[in-house]
Every structure is written in C-alpha cells, then in structure tokens.
Amino acid sequence: MPSFFPFTPGQESRARFQPESSPLLGRFRAVPPSTARRPSHGALGLLVVDVWWSRYGVLVVLPAVLAIGWCALPFPQYPLLDDGDGNDHHGGDGVPSDAPTRKIPGHGQPRVRVNFWFFLFIYYNFYNLTALIWITKVFNLYSLNWWPQSLGFLPTVSLIATLALVLPIPIYLSPETRFLTVHNTSWIAWTFIVMAAPVAIAFLILTTLNWWPQSLGFLPTVSLIATLALVLPIPIYLTPETRFLTLHNTSWIAWTFIVMAAPVAIAFLILTTSQRHHLGLRNRMSDTQRIFTTSWWTGGDLGGGNQQGRRGRQTQQRQHQQPLLARLRARWLPASFVRFVWFCLALLVGLMAYVIGEAYAEIYLRTLPHDNLETIMYVYSWVVTVHLLDLLTGWLLGIREGERVGSYPLSWIFKLYFMLTYQTYVRALYARLRSPQQFVLLQILSSSFLILLTPLTMSPLWHRVSRALNFTDQSYASYQKVCTRNVFIRFLAENVSMAAFLGSVLVLHFGPNKDVYPYFAFDFDDDDSERYDFKLTFWASSVTWACELAASLCLRLLIRWCYGVDVGREGRLDLAVWPELLPTSVAVMLHVLQNMLFSIIRLQFQLQ
Length: 608
Known about the structure:
Elements: E1 8-10, E2 29-31, H1 40-50, H2 52-71, E3 77-79, E4 112-114, H3 116-142, H4 153-166, H5 169-173, E5 177-178, H6 184-207, H7 218-231, H8 249-273, H9 287-290, H10 294-298, H11 307-310, H12 313-321, H13 324-332, H14 335-366, H15 372-397, H16 408-430, H17 436-457, H18 460-468, H19 476-510, H20 534-563, H21 567-577, H22 581-600
Antiparallel strand pairs: 1-2, 3-4
Helix pairs in contact: 1-2, 2-19, 2-22, 3-4, 3-6, 3-22, 4-7, 6-8, 6-14, 14-15, 14-16, 15-16, 16-19, 16-22, 17-20, 19-20, 19-21
C-alpha cells in the first residue's frame, strides 16, 4: 500500500488488553511497522490527550473556532433588485414575483445578493474539503485506503475537490438551471455526492483490479466525473425556467449526494457486469489482503491454482457437506466484500440523518410560532429519530470480533456523529424560543433524563433485562464500558455544539454576514407577536450551557460513586489507544457544525 498509510498485519502490542471491560476491535488490526524512527505526531497526540485542557481544547475549542471563522468570512454583498433583469421579483434567481417584501425571521428569506464565485471557491470549497477529510479519516479507522495506488492520496483528493467546484459552474451559468444554486439543500446534496466518491473508489478497488473502465482509463474517468459535477449545475442556473432550483439548499444537497454516489454506482456496475470473475482469487494475495477474505477466518490458503494445495482433504469434505447456497456465497462474497457493504450501509444511514434533520428543521420553521407542548414534541421526536438511527448504525458496525464490521473506533466516531447531529439541531432551535420558560422546561427535561436514566441503564439489572430481550449479547463489563464511552461522547457533543452556537450567534448577528444569515438577525416588526430576541437567546443559552456542565459533573460523580468508573479516564484511554480517534473526531465535529450553519444560509446570487 502507499507510504501515506503503510500498514502491515501485526500484534496488538500497544493496546491495553482488557478482554472483559473493553470491546474488541477485531481478531487482527493493521498497525504501523516498528521502525527505529517513531513518528513525532504520535507522541504529540499522547501529550494532547493526557492533559485535560489541551484535550478539550482540541476536541471542543478547535472545531468551534474553525466553524465560527468559516461562517464569519465576509461575503461580497449586493442589494436585492425588483425586476432587475426582467425575469422575476428579485432579479432572476428564481424567487417568485409574489414573494412578500417583509421576511419573517423564522423563515429567513434572502435579504441580499452574494457573489457566486466567492461562495463556490471560498465558502463552499472549505465545506467540501472538510467533508472529504472526514470521509478519509473514517476510512483510516477502517484501515483501508480509498484512493488508487497509481495516483496517490493528494492527487486523488485534489481531483475530486476540483471537480466538485467545477461541475456546479454550468448549472449556475445556465438561466434554466440557475435556480438550483440558491437552495442550500442542493449544495448539501452535492457535498454528499462528493463524500460518496471515496466510498465508490474504495469499493471499486476492493472488488476489481481497476475500478475505472479499462477502455477509458483512470484519469479520464475521474476527470469526467469531476467535470460533470461542476458543469451540470451551470445550465440549470442559466435557464430561466429552472433557475429557481439553485435558490434551494435542498437542490445543492441532492446534487452533492448524487456526485458522491456516482463512484459507488460505477463500481457496482463494473462488479455486476464482469460476473465477479476477479473474486475467484486465482492470484496469491498478500497477508494484508487476506485479512479481508473468508479464508483468513476459516484458516484456508489462497495460493495459486492448485486446488489441493489450497485446501486440505478435511476442508474439502466440510465444503461438500455445506449447502450449495453457503458454498456459493463463500466463493462469490469474500469477507472483504461483505464487511465493506456493512460499512457503506452505516455511512448511508449517517448521511441520511442529516437529511432527516433538515426536514425536521424545515417543518419546524414553516409552522412557527410554537407553544411549549409543540416545542417539546418537536425536540423529542427528533431525539427519538436520532437515537433510532444511531442504534441502527451501531448494529451495522458492531464493536466485537465477528460482527459485521467489528470496529470499536468506528462505532466511537459514529456515536459522536449522531450525538452531535442531535445537539446541533437542538441548539439551532434555541434561536426560535420566545420565552425563558421554554428554555427552562427543555433544560429540566434534558438534565432529568440524563442524571436519572443514565446510571439506571448502566446497572446490572438493566443489562440482564437487555440480554433477556436480545438487545445486547455483551458481557456486563463490556456493556458498562460502552455506556461510559457514550457519556464522554455526549459531554463532547454538548460543549462543542453550544460553543459553536453562541460564537456563531455573536459573529453573525453583529458581523458583516448578518443579512446573509437572516436566521440570526432577530428582526421583527413593532406589532409582531413573534419576537425572537438576541439577548434572550444568547443569555438563556449561556445559562443552559452552565446547567448542562453542572448536570454532566453530577452524572460523572454519580457514576463514579455507584460503579467506580471514571468517565474522563475511560475517554482519555480510548483516545490514547486509538490515536486516529483524535483527528477524526475534530473532522467529524467540524463537518457537523458546518452542516448546521450551511443549512441556514440564504442564497441569492448576483448575476455577473
């Protein structure tokens, strides 16, 4: 494999061995080769993790500051024009001519025009690169390089990032399709598609000798996908009949999702049309490749074409005794393929969580104002939805040997992803609460559930009931470890989401991008009953943050007193045993925070 990620099979010499209290990552792990010169970043990572202020500085402060700085980049802004180009009420970007001149803050209609090229190459480019970094770090935890060896990591990422910027240009330049570019969802969907490109490339590399069509070649194929991703949105923008699509965030999100799925679709087509002859394993595989094959787990050999050399007489007898379907599956679906499919399904569920969150937010904002009961119903319906998706992803990944993907670090990161997704949308809701009573009610419910239910779910009785109902088959020590990890992850998600929310409220309310983010403008008419006040939002959110810190401290003390477990120590040990968790956590936090901020920007582009 490339020197960028030089992993070879080895022993778990650096990991702490706790067979009962810690879930297993798998039977074998890919670990760096032992060399005389150890990488300096490993020692630096241990120092960062060991000290509490540096640990939380990297995991909480750094992602929040990056997200706030990103949304604070000043946009070149232009005033809205009435029939400025003769096409519509606001100058041709697809806004209906009968749109009201007074915009309700809850709906956040555009107030100014922004420069499309600044948005594409500066604002969106950083958002897109963060998504690619996040998906790459997830593959690092999976111990698989998604980029082709012949091209390398940096050229592949640069090519995908370039295509992600180029393909929307024709959609913007076309009056018929320009409307797509003003919808946040279009851009988010396009980002999803770009994020799916590494998954598709890895799928192709894993299942084929070359993932691109042999008749076309690698560089032309990648260049074609990247060019299409940027070019296709241009005619949509330039076409007056379809330009309105560019005004919707959903259109951009959907386009991003399509681009990300393109490599997966190509890989699947190549896999199915080639009749999977390459999975016959006629050539000898390396030890690293054998980790991802069925023979590694069954003890078989994947040598050359000599059948007797590859299998002993006992293995042949066992295979002849197996049903035909099982033998065909063992031949045509090696463990690498099955494990990677589970991994891709987990990624799909994770991406869908954001789309569902966008739908929840859209419904809530379109039905403002809400009373206390409606607010509680909205929040906890979202909480239930996120936890169900989290449970599904946790089952798809697994954390122990023999389970689907069987990766504890991946389950750690996805737990953080879902917890932070849930927290960011709740924070965004704070900007539309109209009274201190609503803040108090939400906080009382949240803290009560946290302090009372969490220790209860960690009890041996709860574990026995869960085992009896087949909700888990873990030992109590492993189950308790996972519960403690979840408390640590919740602490990180609560703090980074609140820090980013308060910082973005300050920057966007008083900064130059106030009109680009009307959601945080907090403007209202004198006779308007829907008063969303900046002071109420900021100070009530700050008090809520203090209450959450106090509740978290009480919970940690209660867990230590009842079960003798230090939540902070367990989280620190996880970060030390799996060093990749630290940079991956920063990447996923920044990506989720950007998702929240990107969903509330209001796009209206100035025609150049």
